[in-house]
Specification:
This protein has about 120 residues and is an all-alpha fold. It has a domain of about 70 residues. It has 5 helices and no strands. The protein is rod-shaped.
Length: about 120
């Protein structure tokens, strides 16, 4: 039951549905009413397994849809013309060549020079 493959889950579901129908036939041949048949332990276990398989198939479908959607998004991104990507490169070139750290150091040096000049002017 640990398979993640849709084909395997479909096969499991078909198997358990055939088991359920054969069990229901046996119980009907015995002449039991619907209430007793619904309470039968074997029938309940088989129906539970079918519900689990159906739930797992729904999850597999959701994952498949998500993969297809992501493939569409990727295809759309790849279809974007090259010009727009070039604009991003131009924006990066406009940034200053000197880092902020260098700019701070330059300001600090300018202040020191101003202080020296102020001292020289005073003396």
């Amino acid at each position: 039951m640990a398979s993640k493959d849709r084909v395997a889950r479909d096969a499991q579901k078909a198997y358990w549905e055939s088991e359920l129908s054969s069990r229901l036939e046996v119980l009907n041949e015995r002449g039991l009413d619907q209430g007793t048949i619904a309470k039968d332990v074997s029938v309940r276990k088989i129906r539970a397994k079918i519900r689990k398989i159906t739930g797992r198939l729904a999850v597999i479908d959701e994952k498949q849809n998500k993969v297809e959607e992501m493939a569409k998004v990727k295809a759309e991104k790849m279809a974007v013309p090259k010009e727009e990507k070039a604009k991003k490169a131009k924006a990066e070139e406009e940034t200053p060549e000197v880092s902020k750290r260098q700019q701070k150091l330059e300001k600090k040096l300018e202040k020191k020079k101003e202080k020296k000049q102020a001292k020289e002017d005073q003396s």
